[in-house]
Amino acid sequence: MTWQQLASGAALATTVACASGGHVRAGKFNNYKPNLISRAEILESHAADALTCVRQLRGEFLSNRGRASILLSNEMLPVVYLDNVQLGSFDALATIPASDIAEIRLYRSWEASYKFGRDKTTGVVQVITYVPDFAPAESDSSRARRITPVNGWPP
Asked: Are 50 and 104 in contact (CB under 8 A)?
């Protein structure tokens, strides 16, 4: 193999990586999104709580964004919301068990200001809890069919 063939292969690999937006991530999760941690990723991480999960899977959520405003608070980490209710500072993630989480989403400053209010200039980490689908052991309609009518009721 000549150096020209190697150079063209390296240029192609660089072009593909740049065209993908730089978010090339190895592993089994092909639909990687930099601002979203899915339930599958959370379960795969075996983390005990949401904060550990974020540190393992998306350390960039913790990146210092600098001071967002002269007038607002000095807080530089995102605010945490649990099911659309403000929970508190970023440390509140440590109180949420990872097994109860469906997804964790990061909203950067402009998205957070639009969705959660103008004072959320440092961003928002939104945690959506997991609600399992419980199949009823016996449906109400099958139970109703087994009830024998008394004095003609139900008709």
From this structure: yes
Tell me how many domains the chain contains: 1
- pLDDT by residue (tens digit) across 58-75? 988 877 555 555 555 556
Assess if residue 5 is contained within a domain: no
Judge if pTM exceeds 0.70: no
Q: Rounded distance, CA 31 to CA 36, Å? A: 10
CATH classification of the domain holding 113: 2.170.130.10
What residues make up the domain containing 59? 31-146
Question: In this predicted model, what pLDDT tens digit does every residue of 72-124 receive, in sequence order?
Answer: 555 678 899 999 999 998 899 999 999 999 999 999 888 999 999 988 888 89
Smallest Cα–Cα separation from 98: which of 31, 46, 36, 29? 46
